[in-house]
């Protein structure tokens, strides 16, 4: 049976684009706003929700809160059109760590959807994990369930296996920010940048967290940057 995906976006062309990209491999249902999306979510069982951050009426953050109240384990990909992820610390608190930035490229959409859906089925024990990528996936799965301690432990394991990749350091910094450990978080962002000076999420986080008008709500968790067709 195909996995079922719910798309909640008020822009018709975005709904059409996403559905065309995904309907060969998944059963896709669309909703035109937050209220419509919540009604459809309650009426059916979904494996994944693609949720626009900016919606008329109930905004994306509020919709995410209500989705998590209905099903705490639902995987959600947040859709954003902003240069940085506004209020992303709120979404991380609610367990959303995956993002798509407009405009979308079809291959990138299919790639992130496949990754997130596969992550949902992770059930192996720690002893069965053997690679950086596996520990990173388990860390993201734990964060989705708002188990930040377990997520941080998995990220540390990932780093112990491969200390040359920036993503785990950036996510560790994000978790530390959620715990109000700003200086420790900044060290993780700097570590990510020492490995890859062009890694944009860590650049965003370090720049934001060192500004005079620091706002934790703008934390960048590593959204997908994609080019339009």
Concise overview:
This is Stage 0 sporulation protein A homolog. The chain has 229 residues and is an alpha/beta fold.
Fold and architecture overview:
- The protein is 51% helix and 11% strand.
- The model is unreliable at 225-229 (pLDDT under 50).
- It is of the alpha/beta class.
- Helix 7 packs antiparallel against helix 8.
- Helix 1 links the parallel strand 1 and strand 2 (27-31).
- The two termini are 31 Å apart.
- A five-stranded parallel beta sheet has the order 2-1-3-4-5, sandwiched between helices.
- The protein is globular, with a radius of gyration of 17 Å.
- It folds into two domains: 4-120, Rossmann fold (3-Layer(aba) Sandwich), CATH 3.40.50.2300; 126-218, Serine Threonine Protein Phosphatase 5, Tetratricopeptide repeat (Alpha Horseshoe), CATH 1.25.40.10.
- It has ten helices and five strands.
Largest sheet: 5 strands, parallel
Instruction: Please identify the top-level CATH class of the largest domain.
Output: Alpha Beta
N→C terminal distance:
31 Å
CATH-assigned fold name of the largest domain: Rossmann fold
Query: Rg to the nearest angstrom?
Result: 17 Å
Overall structural class, as computed from helix and strand content, comes to alpha/beta
Protein name: Stage 0 sporulation protein A homolog
Organism: Orenia marismortui
Pfam families: Response_reg
Keywords: Phosphoprotein, TPR repeat, Transcription, Transcription regulation
